């Protein structure tokens, strides 16, 4: 079975960068490596809940910029929506995939009581 590359995945609809109600909450990083130095990367997954990601390549959904990773968070304790953006390369994909999987586990655990399965607490 072929593993789908992150840049091949198309999410329905879209998310807007930053926060509609407060300016300055779209964080730009020089690279994936720079992003990994932040608390959004290695902080508490519940408090810094990643709810969406988009890997944009030129020509994808009319995107004509550089290859970019967009990450969308809810900082749950303070009800703040924010986002992060960085240039990305295909070489970053294994590290990004591993990190996204760890973030997905938090979302899965949140919804497990409704979804059933091994994490069923309901």
Roughly how many Å is the radius of gyration? 15 Å
Count of all domains: 1
Spatial gap, N to C terminus: 33 Å
| Low-pLDDT runs | none
Form type: globular
Which class best fits the helix and strand makeup?
A: alpha+beta
Order of helices and strands: EHHEEEH
**What is the topology, as strand order, of the major beta sheet?**
1-4-3-2
Number of strands: 4
Number of helices: 3
What is the makeup of the main sheet? 4 strands, mixed
Global mean pLDDT: 89
Helix content: 25-40%
What fraction of the residues are assigned to beta strands by DSSP? 15-25%
Q: TL;DR?
A:
It contains three helices and four strands. By secondary structure, it is of the alpha+beta class. Strands 1-4-3-2 form a four-stranded mixed β-sheet.
